[in-house]
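User: Um, any thoughts?
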Amino acid sequence: MSRKTKGTDLTRREFVTTVGLAGLAGLAVAGAGATGVIAAPEPPAGAVTAETLPKRKLGKTGVDVSILALGGMFDTINNQLLLRQAIKWGVTYWDTAESYGDGLSEQGFGRFFARNPEARKEIFLVTKLQTKGGNFTERLDNCLKRLQTGYVDLLFIPHGLSDIGELTPAIRDFAAEMKKAGKIKFFGFSTHTNMEDCLLGAAKLGWVDAVMLAYNFRVMNTPKMQEAINAAAQAGIGLVAMKSQAGRPGKHEIGGEAKMEMTQRFLQRGFTDKQAKLKVVWETPKIASLCSQMPNLTILSANVAAARDLPKLAREELESLRRYALETKAEYCAGCGKICQEAVGGAVPVNEVMRCLMYYREYGDPELAKLTFAGLHPEVRQRLAEVDYSRAEQTCPQGLAIGELMRQAREMLA
């Protein structure tokens, strides 16, 4: 993925596009015309100025951020028009990472800032570093070079926390040093595994400014998640949601009346079920922003429409989401990795393999799935076929067919 073609253009193999919310094209969305898709107005030739989009304060940072954030896990280099349109529509929280395209996502943002220097001050810019690889200072400097900026507004380390113990004193000291040097304004971490425990642990530390977590209609109403969200917010931690569509690792979606009823109900209101999944997250006022992969103008415009029109979902609509979540429960990995990992004696990070399957099936991105899978330790990949998953299946709150899914992962991702 790090190989480049001549010049700056990329092949699909070199920088895959994560579709995320694919399937919106052709569906009716709020404010759409006869085609069902909001037309993207031609960007101005001059300055890029953000239009109004609802904003919320990001915890104790005191900064107002757009409630919709642009996830940068797509070909940002060859989608400069989309970046310009995101600002024009008020999507001014931009999220990327060192690992996205081996830095190519950051490079695309940097190209935009170089061509539109006045736009940098409009953007709340976020990047992330994983703990593996060491030398945070050098790597952050490389991020800033690719982004063509002197600082980022928010830095996440680790990118993918699963245990609060990973947030070491060395990371705390590094964050303080980078703040003093002016290279970052705020610090936090991202998590899509054991999110509740990570939030509860962060709330006790006193030096975490923000957390990005998997948060969606399937997990948001559990007592432990509500406790964790409240504790983090009380500690002044800004919260950013991701994985709002609650993608599934399984091969087939479980169909049924709940799915049909939910889709029809939301379409009658003038928006899609995918937009409804965004809206239900925004109904948690403690969530400052929601990060979404929006690799084309169709998805961007649909999500902006959902963000600009925020009437509360009716009780019947929330109930339809709840019924759908229950009906498809056995197809969703809720990120409680500690449970299944303990059940297999720590031999396999089941939830990480599930995430690879989700990229393959829900995101429609086999290359991203295989690259993420290849990043697992070779011994882990070897042990996939050797582990007995029966206890993990017995303890899984979702009732996932873990053994079968791990078999599919070996066949599809190796």
